[in-house]
Design a protein that fits this description.
mainly alpha
């Protein structure tokens, strides 16, 4: 009988181990399903953010084209070519080309803003000085930025 009791205990232990592993497997499946649900929610949130970013980028592009004209950029380019490194002038000319072709990406817009932050006040100041000089000499500045003399 001693052998049967040991066999019975051995079977019970193995059954207990089996049941424990089965429960653990079930817990893992629940965790996996929970994670899948979380992933689905996160993917949906990410999709919404992607759409919002796309809309935001379009709005930024519209604002850029409302805020600047090719003439503004050419004034800036002239100043940059005179006062900055050749690479900066070349990069800015590339931005002008993209601007004219309506191919500005968000990085380009950021770079354009940086140029305006760095050089914009100098361009405005130079324009103000030129306008003042022409005014002092009897000239006028029309709305298009062209100078002419009053005779």
């Amino acid at each position: 009988m001693g052998g049967n009791g040991q066999k019975k205990n051995s079977v019970e232990k193995r059954l207990q181990i089996y049941e424990d592993k089965l429960k653990e497997k079930s817990r893992k499946e629940k965790e996996i399903n929970s994670l899948k649900e979380q992933i689905a929610v996160l993917q949906e949130e990410q999709s919404v953010l992607t759409n919002e970013l796309s809309e935001n980028e379009k709005e930024i592009q519209v604002e850029v084209y409302k805020s600047y004209t090719p003439k503004d950029l050419l004034k800036m380019a002239t100043y940059i070519e005179k006062h900055a490194k050749v690479e900066a002038a070349t990069d800015f000319r590339d931005l002008i080309k993209k601007f004219e072709d309506h191919n500005l990406e968000i990085n380009d817009i950021s770079n354009l803003q940086t140029y305006f932050k760095i050089y914009g006040q100098y361009v405005k100041e130079e324009h103000r000085i030129i306008k003042g000089l022409f005014g002092a000499l009897g000239g006028k500045l029309d709305g298009q930025g062209f100078y002419y003399y009053i005779k």
